[in-house]
Each structure stands twice: as C-alpha cells, then as structure tokens.
C-alpha cells in the first residue's frame, strides 16, 4: 500500500549511526522499501542547519546527506516508495524568497537518491531556533493516490511565522510545483503550532468525500460551514474537488484542549458510531521508553454524527 499513517513514540533527541557527529534533533525515521534505506531529518541545533539523511536499513551506515534545508527543526519526512520521492517539511528555509525578503516555510521534494530537490514556499518562516513552530508533515489527496502518474495535491499547514494557513501544492506527473504556492484559508489569528494533516477518502454515504483533518494549538478562527470552533481546535475540510482558496471553509470544527498532535481515522462506514477519529492532545513532555512507560496515545471522539462527515461514537 502507498497510503498509511504512522505515529511512532521515540525519543526526540537521539543519534543514528554515522548520521551526525554531534547530537541534534532527529525526526522519526521512515523506511523506504524501494531503496532499502531509512530517511531521517536532522534538525537545527546550536546553529547547525537542518538536512535530510539516508542510511542503510541493514547496517545504519550513512548513504547520503541532502543539501542544507534551513534553520528550524525538521519534521518526519513523507516517503512515496512507488514514486521514488521523499518530501521534507521545514518551518524556516533560511532564504530571503518570501515577502519582505524574509525566510519561508518550505516543502522540498527529493528523489530517493537525495541528489536534487524542488522547493515550494508555503508562507513566511518562523524565527530560527528550537522553539519556533514546526512545519509538520502534510498529506496527499485522493486525486494523487488514485492517479496512474502521481498527479494530484499535497496539503500542508504552512506560514509558521504567523497564523497558520492551509496550502495545496500541485504535483504533476511526479513533479511538485516550485516557488510561491497560492495560499488557502487562514486557520488561526496568530502564530501557533499546526498539527500534521490526516486524509481519508469516504464514499460510504453515497457521495464522495475526501476529508483532511488538522488541528491548531491555539488562536483558531477558521471559517466553517458547520460547527464553529475558536481557540484550540480540530478542523475538517472536504478536498474532493482538488481546489483550495482563501475563502474555502472548513466543514466542521471542534474544541481540542491544547490542540491535537496527531489524528488517525479508524474505519469509513455509514453506520452511526462505527467510524472513529483518534487524537492525542498536544503538549510538550519527556518521552519515557521501557517497562512501565506511559501509553503513547489515548483516544477521544471528535465530530458529531453527520451526513457529511465521519461519525464518532461515544468511547
């Protein structure tokens, strides 16, 4: 399968064999069956720029490092093994390409060899440093997943310098659009962390819906056509049309204390209560590994029963 959601609980700071000579913030690793390599982001640390690394899964030996990507933590890369592409997400690219000669929030597309890249600008970048809001992984839409030539859209929550904005980056015949990407709707009134994005395609109601779910930690003010949410929120958007604009409205919103750090969908059926939306409330905390460690996630229902949305029952 090309489409999967993975939420790993691992220490934020660690060292992979031969990836880096000093301790830096590393992303969760992602295995690519096509190349047999593991891809991991090396985040900003004490002024050292971020990059993407590829290591052999069998030995942990470094295969290659990408060019430097910027001055902010780098999120878990997104790998499409069948397309031979790796996507990197960073909140500050250390460039001057955005308005006012500011740095940009950016998404990079690499071949699995990491020998070249395409960069898309998704809003201005947050200040360099470990405390800056991170640009978390986006998701492909169903148009991309169902295409025969890797054409569709990649949705990402950008603009880490201010209120986060939802963007759709076009991909045509396995080549991502470059340069400045047209913004979609604003999700919050001020700078805040935006979660990774989760996508699910649902036809169970007799009408096609391509849902994406995302969360803002604070200051949420997205326009909705259904339930309104302000502050710490989870929002849903139907992106089945493959279009996005500044006036696109969320289908629904619901309060999630502190925001959700991840969103996972379980089942897509028409029966009320049979489809679940799993989240974990966002909060900074130490990760405990080993016997007696606390669970990595918990679940709670989000979004009430509706003919135009996934159904979540009481848990």
Given as residue ranges, the uncertain stretches (5+ residues, pLDDT < 50) are 1-15, 285-315
**Terminal-residue CA separation:** 29 Å
> What is the H-and-E element order?
EEEEEEEEEEEHEEEEEEEEEEE
Classify the secondary structure makeup into a structural class: mainly beta
Number of helices: 1
Residues in β-strands, percent: 35-45%
Radius of gyration: 19 Å
- Tell me the total number of β-strands: 22
**Structural shape:** globular
Whole-number average pLDDT?
81
Q: Largest beta sheet, briefly?
A: 5 strands, mixed
Query: How are the strands ordered across the major sheet?
Result: 7-8-9-10-15
Subunit arrangement of the protein: single chain
Instruction: Name the helicity range.
Output: under 10%
Write structural notes for this entry.
This protein has 1 helix and 22 strands. By secondary structure, the protein is mainly β. The strands form 6 sheets. A 5-stranded mixed beta sheet has the order 7-8-9-10-15, with no helix packed on it. The longest helix is centred in the middle third of the chain and has 5 residues.
Key words describing this protein structure:
315 residues; mainly beta; disordered N terminus; 5-stranded mixed sheet
Describe the protein's topology.
Blueprint (H helix, E strand, L loop, with lengths): L12 E2 L9 E2 L4 E3 L4 E6 L8 E6 L5 E4 L12 E3 L4 E6 L13 E8 L6 E7 L14 E2 L1 H5 L5 E7 L6 E8 L2 E2 L2 E2 L2 E4 L11 E5 L6 E12 L10 E8 L13 E4 L4 E7 L9 E6 L34
Parallel strand pairs: 10-15
Antiparallel strand pairs: 1-2, 3-4, 4-5, 5-6, 7-8, 8-9, 9-10, 11-12, 12-13, 13-14, 13-16, 17-18, 18-19, 19-20, 21-22
């Amino acid at each position: 399968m090309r489409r999967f959601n993975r939420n790993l609980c691992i220490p934020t700071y660690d060292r992979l064999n031969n990836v880096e000579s000093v301790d830096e913030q590393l992303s969760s690793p992602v295995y690519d069956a096509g190349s047999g390599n593991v891809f991991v982001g090396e985040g900003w640390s004490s002024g050292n720029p971020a990059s993407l690394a590829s290591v052999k899964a069998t030995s942990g030996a470094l295969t290659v490092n990408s060019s430097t990507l910027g001055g902010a933590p780098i999120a878990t890369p997104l790998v499409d093994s069948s397309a031979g592409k790796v996507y990197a997400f960073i909140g500050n690219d250390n460039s001057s390409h955005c308005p006012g000669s500011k740095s940009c929030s950016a998404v990079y597309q690499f071949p699995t060899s990491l020998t070249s890249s395409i960069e898309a600008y998704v809003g201005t970048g947050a200040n360099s440093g470990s405390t800056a809001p991170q640009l978390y992984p986006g998701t492909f839409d169903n148009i991309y997943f169902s295409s025969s030539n890797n054409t569709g859209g990649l949705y990402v929550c950008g603009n880490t310098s201010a209120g986060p904005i939802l963007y759709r980056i076009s991909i045509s015949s396995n080549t991502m659009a470059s340069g400045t990407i047209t913004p979609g709707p604003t999700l919050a009134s001020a700078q805040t962390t935006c979660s990774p994005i989760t996508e699910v395609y649902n036809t169970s109601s007799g009408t096609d819906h391509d849902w994406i779910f995302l969360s803002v930690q604070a200051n949420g003010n997205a326009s909705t056509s259904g339930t309104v949410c302000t502050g710490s929120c989870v929002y849903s958007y139907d992106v089945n049309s493959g279009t996005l604009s500044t006036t696109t409205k969320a289908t629904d919103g619901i309060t999630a204390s502190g925001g959700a750090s991840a969103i996972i969908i379980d089942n897509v059926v028409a029966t009320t209560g049979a489809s679940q939306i799993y989240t974990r409330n966002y909060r900074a905390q130490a990760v405990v590994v080993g016997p007696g460690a606390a669970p990595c996630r918990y679940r709670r229902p989000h979004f009430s029963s509706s003919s135009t949305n996934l159904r979540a029952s009481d848990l």
